[in-house]
Write a structure and sequence with these properties.
- The protein is of the alpha+beta class and about 475 residues long.
- The chain has 3 domains: about 110 residues, Galactose-binding domain-like (Jelly Rolls, Sandwich); about 230 residues, 3-Layer(aba) Sandwich (Rossmann fold), CATH 3.40.50; about 35 residues.
- The chain is about 35% helix and about 15% strand.
- The strands form 3 sheets. It has a 7-stranded mixed beta sheet, with helices on both faces. Strands 1-3-8-5-6 form a 5-stranded antiparallel beta sheet, with no helix packed on it. A 4-stranded antiparallel beta sheet has the order 2-9-4-7.
- α6 crosses α8.
Length: about 475
């Protein structure tokens, strides 16, 4: 075989390797697809009330089917629908529900208890399932939406939420859905999306059901993937702390917040102004009871049932909006690389735009003015006063945080043994062009397409060099 033929075979071999490395990425891009809604093709067996079924398919989360105990919601489909999962939206959260899957012959494949269900949740189904039944044995279920999807990425507006966190770095306690943006500004995109910390959001009262969906859309947009929790307080406007505590109950509110702190074990907590921002009693009650709850959460003698369930916990810091002491000013206008250079303030406004039901009251998140979302105060600290005063996690030990990576210890230096005497061997020189293709493929920093092109160029260079050698030898 001639040198030219050998060189060409080497070029083709390198090209084939580069193509094989590229192929998985191409295949993945081609296979990515959006899941299809096939609910309209499914036969609903229960409830028998057609109007109730219609309310679960109308795309309006404020309408719902009332499902009596053991009645449930049952539907079946054929092989043609290729159902891969079900997306549920509850009008009111049940204590629990049961999801039963059966095959085409009616044989039960699985029976899953849905304990502590989320308002909106995607549940994957078994490939051999051809019917499901959703029911409760002892409570009435209020189901807003049931949607069946084929395999693929969920479409816009449907989110595959993870359960609430087991351990949070930051706990954001918001009186209502949207306050976490209007008054806490860029807190969530900065710490959840940009810094990758474990951020848990909790809402004291949520009002209309549509506000839950709006909050979920906004949080997902800002990088939160663990579902928020919605506490059981009724939404009512009051103009004083006394009126708010009378409605919610001071001990009950404090106890719920103690439970929240012990459950999520946050390092830092962010919440409302003691004066209620523009004077809203629910905001006042949230901040007031949270201040009380922090030391109580660390005391096993207080709220002992909660302590028995979760243990005790000492939060390291509490920041309250517009608090007069230990003032910090957050910069929500710095570009965030995780969001393509958008600022936290821009992102907070984008998320607030998803709160469509509230646009008649507010339209913009501000970082200046009387209720500036960038102004906070350090209301409690177990780690001393802030110095830089521009970061909620100043003085927090990084080893306590969820994304902490322990540094790799430096290897212990070992004495170098004396070299063994060896005979002298003259190395055969290798042309740089002959090794460059292999080096390119070993370099992970180069895109695969560039590696392919450069490998081919290297091969052609080898061919040219050898051809030049041959031509020179012929002339001599």
């Amino acid at each position: 075989m001639t040198l030219a033929m050998k060189t060409m075979r080497a070029i083709l071999f390198v090209g084939a390797v580069a193509f094989l490395l590229t192929a998985p990425a191409i295949s993945h891009a081609e296979n990515a697809k959006t899941a299809e809604d096939v609910t309209a093709s499914v036969s609903v067996l229960a409830p028998e009330d057609a109007r109730a079924v219609k309310r679960t398919k109308d795309g309006n989360v404020e309408t719902y089917a009332r499902l009596a105990p053991n009645e449930g919601y049952s539907c079946t489909w054929t092989d043609a629908e290729s159902v891969a999962g079900v997306y549920l939206k509850w009008y009111a959260l049940p204590i629990s529900a049961i999801l039963v899957q059966t095959n085409a012959q009616g044989a039960e494949l699985s029976r899953e208890m849905l304990a502590d269900p989320l308002y909106n949740a995607f549940l994957p189904l078994l490939p051999e399932a051809r019917a499901i039944r959703l029911l409760s044995e002892d409570e009435t279920l209020l189901l807003s939406e049931l949607t069946l999807y084929t395999a693929g990425d969920l479409p816009d507006g449907a989110f595959d939420w993870k359960p609430p966190l087991v351990k949070a770095d930051l706990l954001v306690v918001s009186a209502h859905c949207d306050d976490e943006l209007l008054y806490f500004g860029g807190t969530i995109p900065t710490y959840a999306g940009e810094r990758g910390l474990a951020v848990q959001v909790a809402y004291m009262a949520n009002g209309e059901r549509i506000r839950v969906d709006e909050a979920l859309s906004g949080l997902w947009h800002l990088g939160v993937r663990n579902a928020p929790v919605f506490l059981p307080f009724r939404d009512a406007y009051t103009e004083s702390l006394a009126d708010a505590l009378k409605r919610w109950g001071e001990d009950e509110t404090t106890g719920v917040l103690v439970d929240l702190i012990r459950r999520f074990r946050p390092e830092v907590i962010v919440s409302h102004d003691l004066n209620g921002e523009y004077g809203h009693g629910a905001h006042m009650a949230t901040a007031y009871c949270l201040q009380k709850a922090i030391p109580l959460a660390a005391d096993a003698a207080q709220f002992p049932d909660s302590a028995a369930r979760y243990g005790v916990w000492q939060a390291q810091k509490l920041y309250l909006h517009l608090y007069a002491e230990g003032k910090v000013t957050m910069d929500w206008r710095a570009p965030l690389s995780s969001f393509g250079g958008k600022t936290a303030l821009e992102l907070a406004n984008e998320a607030y735009d998803m709160h469509v039901s509230q646009q008649e009251y507010h339209q913009t998140v501000y970082d200046e003015g009387d209720y500036s979302s960038s102004e906070f105060g350090l209301a409690y600290s177990a780690v001393g006063a802030d110095e830089a005063k521009n970061d909620f996690f100043e003085h927090i030990d990084p080893a306590r945080l969820s994304n902490y990576v322990a540094p790799t210890p430096e290897p212990t230096a070992q004495p170098t043994p004396a070299p063994e005497p060896t005979s002298t061997v003259t190395a055969t020189p290798v042309l740089e062009a002959e090794t460059s293709g292999a080096n390119i493929l070993r370099n992970p920093a180069l895109p695969i397409g560039a590696a392919l092109l450069l490998a081919l160029i290297a091969g052609v260079t080898v061919l040219a060099v050898h051809a030049g050698k041959k031509k020179t030898k012929h002339r001599s």
